[in-house]
Amino acid sequence: MTAAPSIDLSPYLASVRSQELLPWTGEVVELVGLLIASRGPAVAVGDFCEVLTSAGRRIRTQVIGFRDGHVLSMPLEEIDGIQLHDRIIARREDAQVAVGPDLVGRVLDGFGKPLDRLSPIRPAGSYRLYQAPGSPLDREHIVNPIATGIRAIDTLIPVGTGQRMGIFGGSGVGKSTLLGAMARHNSADITVIALIGERNREVRAFLEHELGAEGRSRSVVVCSTSDRPAPLRVRACFVALAIAEYFRDQGANVLLIMDSVTRLAMAQREIGLAAGEPPSQKGYTPSVFNLLPRILERAGNFQKGSITGFFTVLVEGDDFNEPVCDAVRSILDGHIILSRRLAAGGHYPAIDVMNSVSRLGPQLSSPEHMAAGRKLREAMATYEESKDLIELGAYNPGTNPALDAAVRMQPEIAAFLRQDTQVDAPFPDALARMKAIAERL
User: Fold this and answer.
1) Domain C-terminal end among 306, 330, 363
2) Are 203 and 195 in contact (CB under 8 A)?
3) Last residue of one domain, picked from the residues 32, 64, 94
4) How confident is the model at residue 93 (pLDDT cuts 50, 70, 90)?
């Protein structure tokens, strides 16, 4: 008796497994403000949907929660035309962004689509937006410094490849100018810039004047301006992270610049309040403080490549202890403080070296580098302690040798810390200049 021929059912099983057995459509049952409640579809928090209006518009939304058996979502674009009982369909493929070498030199929106009206982008693949930061054991030690082209940072607040730094400052102290200079002069392979919640006017000014053609040629810019819906502003941040991770996985050392974390937190606060979360300090909801580490921890030094992060924090009312400042400072590997007093005196970049710190500075610097930096800091501290006496004319030269040296060298130290941000300051030259000043203290 011959055996029956075997039949390979694996293609059919794979086809069955790939089918979606849950309903992908639902209907709008309520719209209050910017919060859409719908009966269905079967989705998870963070998934994307699309409302099909009776006028034929397709309005993309993002799921933010559930209440009383209804799906709660917020629009990613204008909601004009949505009516009761309009269909809403799930769009799970939207939780990713197209990536590839063609992104370099381009300006993208929060969907990852070009804003610059140049040639179409040919994607080399796609990356998920919402990836976990990864295991701490997958991270490499940070041992190599990255040059930013800013003397005060590279010599006195050294930053390593894969380090995460915060730039804290109030409005009008030169954050955008400093970021543009870093984007032009840094030693990374590629720069990814996320502009979150900025004014429309400021975006163009940053691209043309601060970043310039030199910076744009080696950067990817993702922007979602202040007039965009809150979920789109948050999504733009994840688009920038996914693009940075793509280039990192290609073996590149990436510099990620995000401006600003404060406006990102405000967007998430808007989402949380709409979903019914309880407000805490300054109205920030628990989801804000859950979101921050998920974003900040995705930068780091990995086996294939690295993402060095500079995250700006807009300090409200110059209160450096407000909730977002505190939360961000506790997660990052250091912070750079921008001083309104220095900016008012025309000292740019307005970096308050005495109150800025890089937690990895000692392991990134040679003993000679550390010794010279320590001497400069000591001289600056000595001068600041006696500044009132000096200005009142009560200082008597010859009574304190350390103070005498600090007073004598103060103009040279101030000149060293000032910099025309249009001009690169190569690290070897900056270090040699700092050592020369330190030898005379």
Assistant:
1) 363
2) yes
3) 94
4) confident
- What does the angle CA 76 – CA 79 – CA 84 come to, to the nearest 5 degrees? 120
List, as one string, the DSSP characters of 294-307: HHHTT-EEBSS-EE
Nearest-5° angle of CA 260, CA 263, CA 269? 145
Domain assignment of residue 54, yes or no: yes
Q: Is 10 contained in some domain?
A: no
The amino acid sitting at 4 is A
- Lowest-pLDDT range, 87-101, 215-229, 242-256, 417-431? 87-101
Q: Which amino acid is residue 134, in one-letter code?
A: G
The whole-number pLDDT of residue 23 equals 57
* pTM for the whole structure: 0.89
- Sorted by sequence, the CB contacts under 8 Å of residue 332 that are 6+ apart come out as 164, 165, 166, 296, 311
For residue 253, which of 323, 170, 189 has the smallest C-alpha distance? Answer: 189
Tell me the CATH number at 85.
2.40.10.170
Instruction: Provide the token pair at 312.
Output: 């700006």
Closest CA to 308 of 325, 331, 333, 329: 333
Report the CATH number that the domain containing residue 161 is assigned in CATH: 3.40.50.12240
Same domain membership, residue 232 and residue 136:
yes
| C-alpha to C-alpha distance for 209 and 82, rounded to whole angstroms | 40
The whole-angstrom separation of Cα 268 and Cα 266 is 5
Domain that holds residue 373: 367-439
The secondary element (H helix, E strand) that includes residue 52 is: strand 48-52
Band of pLDDT at residue 100, cut at 50, 70 and 90: very high
Evaluate whether 424 touches 148 at the Cβ level (below 8 Å). no
